[in-house]
Amino acid sequence: MNPHTLLGAFERAPGDPHRPSSTPIHQTATFAQESPESFGRYDYARSDHPTRGVLESLAARLDGGAGSLAYASGMAAIAATFRMLDAGGRVLLHHECYGGTARLLEDLAATRGIVVRRADLVDAAEADYDRLLDAGIDLVLVESLTNPSWRAPDLRALGRACRRAGARLAVDATALSPWWQRPIALGADLVIHSATKLLGGHGDVTAGLVTARDHEVLARLAWLRNAEGCALAPFDAWLLLRGMRTLGVRLDRQGASASVVAARLAERDDLRRVHFVGLPNHPDAIRHARQASGPGVAISLETGDAERSAAMLRRLRRFPIAVSFGSIDSSASLPFFMSHASVPPGRPKPPRDLIRLSIGLEDPEDLLADLTDALDATRHAVAGAHA
Ligand SMILES: *Cc1c(COP(=O)(O)O)cnc(C)c1O
């Protein structure tokens, strides 16, 4: 099915006799039963819920998995994935990862005996994967594009190596969403989304999703979610579903605008680096094109000077300084001080001068004019300050 059509091809309210054209928000915690011993389709919102269920079946179809589960945030989805490990379980992680993931793993290592191995999983060859997995690894976690330098690990090669080693491959697919990449088709067992970002797309809800390739894993995750109570609330499920309906049109446009902005920034002679996987000279451009259909909406740049980067952010008018990315509104951040501030000491962090831009639905020429003005103005200010 055409993916734009797929976004609308779901039952809005299964079983509802009124056949509403939009999925209703069932703002209820409980569902009455016929008798104490007989349970209907739903009994309690923590376990299963009709509004959330519609969202989850759409997510499962987009990801191409056995089923999806919605959580209160991306971090709740990641925590749920780690809960699949037994005490003493072993995780292999790419050394650059989201700050919240690094912080959580540090604690799981200290309190639950989870063993965490970190390695470069982007520049490694398939034989390196076999060697790294040899140490009894249970779970490999990589991001579809590593944040914030947007490197692309080879998901097919990782999937093959995981199968040889009997490990599970989990892909944090936040940066691309199912619109641009379907990790299960490439070999992943679990797909995780911070739906707060591209899937929700409007900056108005925090949510997470886990999609499992097979039913057995899905059942264990569902059991844990009911036991621990971290499911997404009905209204938030509805907001996320509403945002997802326009995923395709939003990302087609945001990805195209990000490509224009990144190409023009890359032409400047006063930036040390521009990180965007859609640029032809990005180290993973060819690999990425083989496993994804779009470049993402976020661009990172290094000015070479942390003071200049901060001054530039303060001068921007069309990019509010805000964590997160993927919204229809553009934003800018300094990951070292913001999204990656929670990276534990001694772990790799982005450089202090790295600016992360998220490109929204505004006109790309207006965004470029704003960026050009802020870069031109700060080039001289900082050069003068250091003279
Ligand atoms: C934001 C983010 C998360 C965490 O998601 P929340 O919804 O903020 O809890 C996890 N992984 C990546 C790659 C992210 O960008």
Can you walk through the features of this model?
This protein has helices at residues 3-6, 50-63, 74-83, 99-112, 126-133, 155-165, 177-180, 183-186, 215-228, 234-244, 247-266, 285-291, 306-315, 364-386; strands at residues 67-71, 90-94, 115-119, 139-143, 168-172, 190-194, 208-212, 273-275, 298-302, 331-333, 354-358. It is α/β, with parallel strands linked by helices and 387 residues long. The strands form two sheets. The protein has a seven-stranded mixed β-sheet, sandwiched between helices. The chain has a four-stranded antiparallel β-sheet with strand order 8-9-11-10. Helix 6 (155-165) links the parallel strand 4 (139-143) and strand 5 (168-172). The longest helix is centred in the C-terminal third of the chain and has 23 residues, at 364-386. It binds pyridoxal-5'-phosphate.
TL;DR?
Helices cover 40% and strands 13% of the residues.
**Average residue-wise pLDDT:** 95
Largest β-sheet summary: 7 strands, mixed
Number of helices: 14
Shape: globular
Encode the helix/strand succession as letters.
Answer: HHEHEHEHEHEHHEEHHHEHEHEEH
Helix content: 25-40%
Q: Termini, distance in Å?
A: 60 Å
Strand content is 5-15%
The unique ligands bound to this protein are: pyridoxal-5'-phosphate
Oligomer: single chain
CA radius of gyration: 21 Å
Give the low-confidence spans: none
Secondary structure class reads: alpha/beta
Arrangement of strands in the largest sheet? 1-7-6-5-4-2-3
Number of strands: 11
